[in-house]
Amino acid sequence: MQLDAKIPEGPIEKKWDSHRFHLKLVNPANKRKYTVLVVGTGLAGGSAAATLAELGYNVKSFCIQDSPRRAHSIAAQGGINAAKNYQNDGDSIYRLFYDTVKGGDYRAREANVYRLAQISVNIIDQCVAQGVPFAREYGGALANRSFGGAQVSRTFYARGQTGQQLLLGAYQALERQVQAGKVKMYPRTEMLDLVLIDGKARGIVTRNLVTGKMETHVGDAVVLATGGYGNTFFLSTNAKGSNATAIWRAHKRGALFANPCFTQIHPTCIPVSGDYQSKLTLMSESLRNDGRIWVPKKKGDTRSPDKIPDGERDYYLERRYPSFGNLVPRDVASRAAKAACDEGRGVGPSGLGVYLDFGDAIKRLGQRAIAERYGNLFDMYERITGDDPYKVPMRIYPAIHYTMGGLWVDYNLMSTIPGMYVLGEANFSDHGANRLGASALMQGLADGYFIIPYTIGDYLATTKLAKVEADHAAVKDAEKGVKARLDKLLAAKGSRTVDSFHRELGKLMWESCGMARNKKGLEENLSAIPALKEQFWKDVRVGGAGEEFNNELEKAGRVADYFELAELMCRDALHREESCGGHFREEHQTPDGEARRDDENFAYAAAWEWKGEGEKPELHKEPLQFNEVHLTQRSYK
Amino acid sequence: MRLTLNVWRQKGKDDAGGFVKYDVPDVSEHMSFLEMLDVLNQRLILKGEAPVAFDHDCREGICGMCGFMINGQAHGPLRGTTVCQLHMRHYKDGDELWLEPWRAAAFPVVRDLAVDRSAFDKIVAAGGYVSVSTGSAPDGNAIPVPKEIADRAMDAAACIGCGACVASCPNASASLFTGAKIAHLGFLPQGQPERERRALAMVAQMDLEQFGGCTLFGECQDACPKGISIDVIARMNRDYWLSALFSAPPSAGAAASG
Q1: What's the CATH superfamily of B117-257?
Q2: What is the predicted ipTM?
Q3: Does A499 reach chain B within 8 Å, measured CB to CB?
Q4: Contact B118 A67 (CB under 8 A)
């Protein structure tokens, strides 16, 4: 298979404009003859469904939650980047583009990232017009803050709930189209397979999560905007329901999966407190602006933090990275915390935690100023841990947060399956090996509001699509497969719960395919994971029936997919003999422990093709060309 | 600590339902309430019983999916906290708790503690938006919004749509939810052109969905995990009455034609 990214010709700043001109249009009167199936209602899916309906297409929108307003985009705290340069501080589209490619450790496609930076300014306009209550200055202008180590102030925000407000904006636009009769909404509905006819994506098989009934929806194109796969690790900052099933089933139907090993670990999360832990909670990384991170110098020092004098504390980020200190990027901060804990200097009951201490900041600025800046985060921390961070240092530890990898898409956001598009975190396109803060919201909305509405029209206008009946052989075949799988899960009637398997898988992944990876651990996983998967299918206990509300059955189907995806993640991590962004191979580091990239051999996107059950996937490479950005080793010393 | 739970079990909306007693002998104070239920459910599954169904997703208090009554209080005893963020350290050994779903005609039970809140989506669909299609927006800074106004809009916009307000209202009114959206958009200049018909359409839809009327008990604002003030109901009423008195009623579907 030859991967064609379909990057338009011409200078980078003209590519999108000229591409839009060359895209074929669907006549306004003909748009209503087409039906687009949009799976997922987060920033990407919600904005896509609303916008496609505004254009006149018939849209069917699906989500697993009880309402489209609940998608996990809602939990994003910090903000959304845009190259508005409202602060007159030297920002530009080019700078946002450059920062994003560099921040991604040079593993993203330049043309896509440039377009993202261009569109970023339209997103802010659109959201403001919808009534998103962004933070304002006294004069009424939009406020900005700097975020994630950027040297310019380009982040727009709505308190600590930016994701919520942007999502509600998209959700309201979506509901407007529901009211107008252009969108038919299917909440509590899970996609379980993709239907291909004549090699094109023409439908999805779904399960109604209330009644358990299966149904097939046919259409002219399918858009997947189902988020990332961080829950492969069991413990992550993702919502409990976030899952990879839609993209994984599409992968097994022929969509290539790119860079699965590029996972992002967020350094400031609340540590695990016990084996009942169900998820991890992120604390905004803005806390690192004023908090100082430290561990005791001595191993196994169990004194309470206030009994440890300053001279016996190791402010390891300030020591190792004097110029960036506590503000080093996410991947660097995470690995340093792991290193300190691996040395036996971690704090808290589990030994897997480091202190984030506001003592100095409170002395310097006063408790009131700190409360103004971080009050809601401090309250949240206290609610969860029972500790008052104004009095004792917070304890934090890294956690899986975001996945940069995803289904491979071309410049039009179309996967390797014609007619199937992938948006937002579910695709691999814009963040390379590491995503910068406040860029996920930007990408989701860029894809949904401003890219897919153009590119999907070109496909529909230029493709001959035969009418598909609901009893087409391919539909029946897909339904049969889905049903057989559910029946098999129910029939195992084993001795272990779905969660117990998922936790075990998560542990394997966190240990060997998490913050630091090496050949030995990855190879061990490649035999341990298939073994665990086999045991799962024999010994899982689901209970209940297929045609009823059955949360365990939902989870079982998703965990079954995680086994296969986890294996691919390890295989990708093993093959990528370099360290870049969120992927740190212990064999590939500089003498002082920093990541060492190998641009000569690995400047490509690794796109894996499913070859069947038990078969090795095939690797396809999309070489990355850097005409604009100069490749350098990142340094935060 | 050891807790006794009386959990409402109901197979579906047409089932009568009833309380079932469970003993949970080993609750850690560090668990969240939902993690405590996870532990109970794991045991039920291994015993061959159906686990307790409850809605939840982000477990960070922002998605609005979780929520049920604990001893008659929506989201339990802690103010400003959704049940996913409520931790067991607020309970003590030997406590007996009663867990029930939101109870309202507009929120039929799906199963056990999970209810159907799609009536909320219908209220939003009736007019809870600014009708601005993608691409037609002016520059973000072309519409100045004073900071105080943006802050007040944000206070109202913080609603997570969990339904605690309805569940704690003796009338099962959705006025806090509806008022919050009307106030959010009504504060902002972007929301002005449709302000009148928005209030009329959303209030009409709220009535259609069988929510009760508001008689200003104020239970809703005490139960709201986001601390939304009952002031938004006053704003809703003002917009509604001014529109009803002084403007022509919207024709059928006018709010939707955008």
Answers
A1: Alpha-helical ferredoxin (1.10.1060.10)
A2: 0.96
A3: yes
A4: yes
What is the rounded CA–CA span in Å between residue B122 and residue B181? 13
CATH of domain A265-401: 3.90.700.10
Beta-bridge partners for B141: none
* CATH numeric code, A17-264+402-462: 3.50.50.60
Query: Tokens at residue A57, please?
Result: 């297409």
* Closest CA in chain B for residue A64: B57
Question: CB of A170 within 8 A of CB of A453?
Answer: no
Q: Does domain B3-111 have CATH number 3.40.50.300?
A: no
- Bridge-based pairing of strands A58-62 and A35-39 is parallel
User: Residue B94: which H helix or E strand, with range?
Assistant: none
Q: List the single residue in A with minimal CA-CA distance to B26.
A: A276
Chain B residues closer than 8 Å to A450 by CB: 134-135
The helix, strand and coil proportions of chain B, stated in percent and rounded to the nearest 5, come to: 40, 10, 50
The residues of A annotated with a catalytic role in the active site are 330
Task: Please give the Cα distance from B88 to A112 (Å, whole number).
Answer: 47
Angstrom distances, CA of residue A34 to CA of A22, A48, A204, A459, A463:
21, 15, 16, 11, 12
Size of interface A-B (CB pairs under 8 A): 225
Residue B99, φ and ψ in degrees, nearest 5: -110, 125
Q: Work out the mean pLDDT of chain A and round it to a whole number.
A: 95
Residue in the structure block whose two tokens are 């900005």: A144
pLDDT tens, residue by residue, A581-636? 999 999 999 988 888 999 999 999 999 999 999 899 999 999 999 999 999 877 77
- A552 interface with B at CB cutoff 8 Å: yes
| CA A444/CA A446 separation, integer angstroms | 6
All residues of chain A having their beta carbon less than 8 Å from the beta carbon of residue B125 are: 175-176, 178-179
SS3 category, A429: coil
Does A281 lie at the interface with B, CB-CB under 8 angstroms?
yes
Contact A141 B141 (CB under 8 A): yes
Sorted by where each begins, the domain ranges of chain B are 3-111, 117-257
